[in-house]
């Protein structure tokens, strides 16, 4: 409204309240601390959950217990080895994977004669791949092995796989270790062949193939993947109640030892067959080192099949023809 002089009157604004800056800073700090503490608590909950879940994984093979004798997985005498370990069930085998070494600690198989005959007819198709079920920080990657000078060596070998699903899984880097080329291509290849021979001969075998990290000076691929110092393959034959272990350094020397399950436990803190008898653990069964050590008669492991009926009938007809016409 205007006044008599024609001037516009402007109402005075109410005086602004003075702000106590100290109180404001304290309030803002409290809000930030509250929000920060909430974030920290959330992260702590996630971390604790992961720790407990990883610990639980390390003992859970309930979905693939058929790969172990009496469904009992190897037992670690030193539980620290299980830190960041993850059990993985694959088609045809089971693996305990280490997020610290980014390698498998071992892979377990139940081999049968029938499975290995099927495997003989399966052509090899390489399909190396990282394991997507693992957290990314724990995975080995294909790039870790590139130009390293080490082979990508299987623990559960491709030659044991009876179908394409098993074969594909065997090429997961969760089943692969950095292996000396000489060891992988010659010595260990022979050991795998002999293991298949023993399985065919006796009908079935339980096999644990694993690694040992011995000593304080360990080396890595790409500053990520630990290189095992030793490799082992433990075999248990239910038909004979015998067990033995191939134990070799992961180098070019071609050295190999045959040791008992108990001796392996002393060297690696792993009881690979917890449920077999004490005598089988303490005594190493005689194991051939290469297929050439097996006699020709022993190599004939495939059971003879009955001749087909048509073949037997044909033979009888030929005999009758010879007896009645050619001998007259």
From TrEMBL:
Q: Where are the transmembrane segments?
A: 40-58
Query: Could you name the domain of life of the organism this protein comes from?
Result: Bacteria
Asked whether the keyword Repeat is assigned, the reply is no
Q: Does the keyword Nucleotide-binding apply?
A: no
Q: Which GO terms describe its molecular function?
A: metal ion binding; nucleic acid binding; RNA endonuclease activity; single-stranded DNA endodeoxyribonuclease activity
Q: What is its EC number?
A: 3.1.30.-
The record's top EC class is hydrolase
Names of required cofactors: Mg(2+)
Binding-site residues for Mg(2+), renumbered to this chain: 184
What are the residue boundaries of the ENPP1-3/EXOG-like endonuclease/phosphodiesterase domain, all occurrences included?
Answer: 90-279
Q: Which Pfam families does the entry mention? A: Endonuclease_NS
Name the InterPro entries on file. DNA/RNA_endonuclease_AS, DNA/RNA_non-sp_Endonuclease_sf, Endo_G_ENPP1-like_dom, ENPP1-3/EXOG-like_nuc-like, His-Me_finger_sf, Non-specific_endonuclease
User: Which residue positions are annotated as catalytic?
Assistant: 154 (proton acceptor)
What UniProt keywords are attached to this protein's entry?
A: Endonuclease, Hydrolase, Magnesium, Membrane, Metal-binding, Nuclease, Transmembrane, Transmembrane helix
Ranges for domain DNA/RNA non-specific endonuclease/pyrophosphatase/phosphodiesterase come to 89-279
Question: What PANTHER family does the annotation carry?
Answer: ENDONUCLEASE G, MITOCHONDRIAL, ENDONUCLEASE RELATED
Q: Which family does it belong to?
A: Belongs to the DNA/RNA non-specific endonuclease family.
UniProt name for this protein: Endonuclease
Q: What is the lineage of its organism?
A: Bacteria, Pseudomonadati, Pseudomonadota, Gammaproteobacteria, Moraxellales
């Amino acid at each position: 409204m205007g006044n008599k002089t024609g001037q516009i009157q402007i109402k005075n604004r109410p005086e602004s309240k003075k702000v106590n800056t100290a109180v404001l800073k304290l309030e803002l700090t409290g809000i930030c601390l509250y929000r920060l503490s909430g974030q920290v608590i959330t992260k702590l909950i996630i971390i604790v959950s992961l720790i407990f879940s990883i610990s639980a994984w390390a003992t859970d093979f309930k979905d693939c217990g058929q790969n172990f004798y009496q469904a009992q997985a190897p037992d670690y005498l030193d539980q620290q080895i299980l830190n960041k370990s993850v059990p993985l069930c694959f088609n045809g085998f089971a693996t305990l994977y280490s997020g610290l070494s980014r390698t498998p600690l071992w892979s377990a198989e139940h081999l049968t004669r029938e499975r290995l005959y099927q495997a003989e007819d399966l052509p090899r198709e390489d399909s190396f791949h990282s394991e997507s079920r693992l957290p990314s920080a724990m995975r080995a990657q294909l790039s870790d092995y590139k130009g390293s000078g080490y082979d990508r060596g299987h623990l559960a070998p491709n030659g044991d796989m009876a179908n394409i699903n098993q074969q594909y899984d065997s090429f997961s880097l969760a089943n692969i270790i950095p292996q000396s080329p000489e060891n992988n291509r010659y010595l260990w290849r022979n050991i795998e062949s002999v293991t298949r021979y023993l399985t065919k001969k006796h009908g079935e075998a339980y096999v644990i193939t694993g690694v040992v990290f011995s000593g304080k000076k360990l080396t890595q691929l790409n500053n990520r993947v630990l290189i095992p110092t030793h490799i082992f393959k433990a075999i248990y034959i239910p038909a004979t109640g015998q067990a033995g272990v191939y134990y070799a350094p992961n180098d070019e020397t071609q050295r190999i030892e045959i040791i008992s399950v108990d001796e392996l436990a002393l060297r690696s803190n792993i009881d690979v067959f917890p449920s077999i008898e004490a005598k089988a653990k303490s005594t190493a069964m005689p194991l051939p080192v290469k297929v050439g050590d097996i006699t020709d008669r022993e190599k004939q492991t495939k059971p003879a099949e009955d001749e087909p009926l048509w073949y037997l009938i044909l033979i009888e007809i030929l005999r009758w023809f010879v007896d009645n016409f050619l001998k007259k």
